[in-house]
Structure formats: structure tokens, C-alpha cells
Amino acid sequence: MINLTYDLHLHSCLSPCGDDDMTPANIAGMAALLGLDVIALTDHNSSKNCPALLAAAAEYGILAIPGMEINTSEEVHAVCLFPDLNAAMDFDAYVYHRLLPFPNKEEIFGRQLIYDTADQICGTVPNLLINATEISFDGLWELTDSYGGVMFPAHVDKAANSLMANLGFIPPDSKFATAEVKDLRKLHQLKKEHPYLEKCRIISNSDAHYLEHIHEANLTLAVKEKSVKGVLDALKEGLGKEG
User: Whole-prediction pTM value?
Assistant: First the structure.
């Protein structure tokens, strides 16, 4: 087994709540400076900055995974990660057509900037990305899996937009084997209240919207190989271990 330092929940300037300095190249550069082995770009309901992020990460020798933080119809946030860009962009198109078509108002919500591989702005997304989609949490595991990806509920310990806060429970027929906890000090109580988590791998990501909030290389993920497949396979296994 190989232990990789990670941060698998990062927002770029494509997310309206993401700082404009969170360009794909800046994210990759900061991850390299911090000594991270693997990162994932997970903008709200979009993967459109993943091509630029993967290109920038490759220049720094960092393993990068294309992804998305989806907002379900129940307003539950979940992270979806994919094996390659083609799968991520196909999923991106599927989700965008099921996003509430409410125009973004930049002066209120912020800009939604798409970058190219030269780290230049090449477009914007017109509809507000932080809205809920028509996609239910029920069935999201299967949907993500159909694109070759893996899903885990985001920041389950938060008081808003989390599985526990919005549904109040973990559906007993859930199939996810990894869960994200923002504050690991809450883990004992969470497992006591939700025994399902006992069989899950628990990871903790930054959910960074600013460069200075990206995690330092403190937490590790045990994988069989240093590859996107190795990371996704690990996230599909319920190991009952902290990240």
C-alpha cells in the first residue's frame, strides 16, 4: 500500500463563491508548494475547469482527479470523482441540463470563470451553479458509478447542505463507502449517532474556496497504486479508517 497526502474537495474560480485567485494553475501550484500528492477539483455542479486543472497539475507532477460537488434536489452536497476527463465532462453536461435555470448575477453571487490550459479566462457559465439540481441523493451512487466514478457525501458534520442536516439520517440502502467529515473531532459522536459510518472510510478535505485554505500535507489516503484508479478504488472500499 502507498500513502498519499490528499485534498479531494477544492473549488476554483468557476464556483461563484470561489475566490478569483483560485485559478486552476494557482491551485496546482499551491498544492505543489504544500506537498500534496493528489488533489481533486470539485466545483459546484460543474467540471468545466477540470481540463485546465489536470494540465496544470501534470506540470507540477501532482495526481489530479476531475470531479464535481453536486447539489442534489434535497440540497445535499456530495462529491463525485471520475476516472478521466471524458467521463467528468459527460457528467457535467448531464448535470447542467438538470440545474435550476436561474441566471447568475455576478454582482451578488460572484463570477463563474472558465479557464483554458494557458491559464487564461476563456468563458463563463451563465446559470447560477450553486442552485439545486433535479438529481436526488437517492440513486446518486448508481448515477456516478455509471460514469465510472465514485460518490461520497460532503462535510456530513456541517449544519447545512449535508446528508445529516438535510435528510436527518443515512438511508439504510446507501452504497457509499467513504464519507467526508470536516471536523474529525466530531467523528466519535457521528459514528454513535449514525452506525453506518462505522463501515466507511472517513476522509477530511478542505472544501477550499481560497488558496490559503487548501489543506497542508497532513492527512494520507492508503491506495494500492498512485493513480486515479488507485484513489477511486480506495474510496469505494469501506475500511472503517480515518483519512
Answer: 0.96
